[in-house]
Amino acid sequence: MQRPDGTLVGLLGEIVGGVGVAQMTTQSPHVGLCERDEPLERVAVAVPGVQQQSGEGIHPPSISPGTSRHTGSTVTFMEASPPDDLAPCHQVRELVSAAADDEVTRHEQALLEAHLADCAGCRDHADRVAMLTRRARLRRVEPVPDMTQRVFDRARPPRLGRGGWLRPALAWVAIVIAAQSLGPLVFGEVEGAPTHVARHLGAFAFALAIGLLYAAWRPHRAFGLLPFAGALVVTMSAGAVFDLASGSSTVLAESVHLAELLGLGLLWMISGSPGWERVSRRGRPLVARTSRS
Q1: CA-wise closest residue to 84 among 37, 33, 32
Q2: 260 touches 179 (CB < 8 A)
Q3: What is the four-CA torsion angle of 149, 152, 153, 155, rounded to 10 degrees?
Q4: Domain coordinates of the chain in residue numbers?
Q5: Structural element, H or E, at residue 50
Q6: DSSP-assigned beta bridge partners for residue 58
Q7: Which SS3 state, helix, strand or coil, does residue 158 take?
Q8: What is the DSSP track for 87-132?
């Protein structure tokens, strides 16, 4: 038994085409597509209560209101009339975003430039993307203080003395130390020391001579060599003092360390006399107080 249509259903039938809902479901709707719809991606439009036909559909954004057509006398459908600029602009704006990240091919770049030449809206969008990208990737350069003098002060540039006499003097001292170390190093002869110990002492002295020669050749490396040379010369001189105090050695035998002390002094001068500035600063107030009193 079929119920009669209600008031609202009847009103809907009058608006649609003067038929009832049962008549609408008796035949399938057919939407005609024009030639320009074929290249677009199509999706099927489902109508409740009607079997959907495969292979025919319309592009959702391409439905243009204002024009209609009737399929028989059942229902009114909107005619598919896709605009020519909406889909291309959407794709072009995706290319604009990709171009900002350098992710477009030559063909895509050519298509992008051709479209931007004719579309003012996409040109404005591209300008805004470029401005936003620039703001995100760049920042204002902050003023940087001049650190030149501090760098030069801490770099300890070499000081070669008037006429550069410190370098040849250091080289001469290094040659003397090397000549003194050849006897213990090669023959193992040191007064009061076994052969093995004598060769070790000769190796230490010869290594010191090589370091001093290198500092004379490359004076800007002198400051880095200063801690090693200072520690070696100071400990060897302290041993010589202990030997003299105990009477196990003579002054003539320990005089060979004078060349090592002289080489350390020259190396310190070439290094820029580190530590001398502090001593001079401490002495200046004392001199000022003495002169005032």
Answers
A1: 37
A2: no
A3: 160
A4: 7-31+38-47+55-80, 86-137, 159-275
A5: none
A6: 43
A7: coil
A8: HHHHHHHHHHHHHHTT---HHHHHHHHHHHTT-HHHHHHHHHHHHH
Tokens of 89: 């602009």
CB-hemisphere CA count at 13 Å for 55?
0
- Across residues 137-160, what is the average pLDDT? 79
Q: Tokens at residue 286, please?
A: 């004392």
Confidence of residue 72 (pLDDT cuts 50, 70, 90): very low
Question: Helices in the chain by DSSP H: which ranges?
Answer: 7-16, 21-24, 86-100, 106-116, 120-137, 148-155, 166-182, 195-217, 222-246, 251-254, 257-270, 276-292
Question: Angle at Cα 147 formed by Cα 143 and Cα 153, nearest 5°?
Answer: 175
1-10, 77-86, 190-199, 248-257: which range is least confident on average? 77-86
% the chain with pLDDT above 90: 16
SS (H, E, C) 9-39: HHHHHHHHCCCCHHHHCCCCCCCCCCHHHCC
**To the nearest whole number, what is the mean pLDDT of the chain?**
73
* pLDDT tens track for 198-247: 888 889 899 999 999 999 998 888 888 999 999 988 998 898 898 888 88
pLDDT band at 60 (very low <50, low <70, confident <90, very high): very low
Residue of 179, 153, 181, 169 whose CA lies nearest to 264: 169
Residue 205 CA to residue 175 CA, distance in Å, equals 11
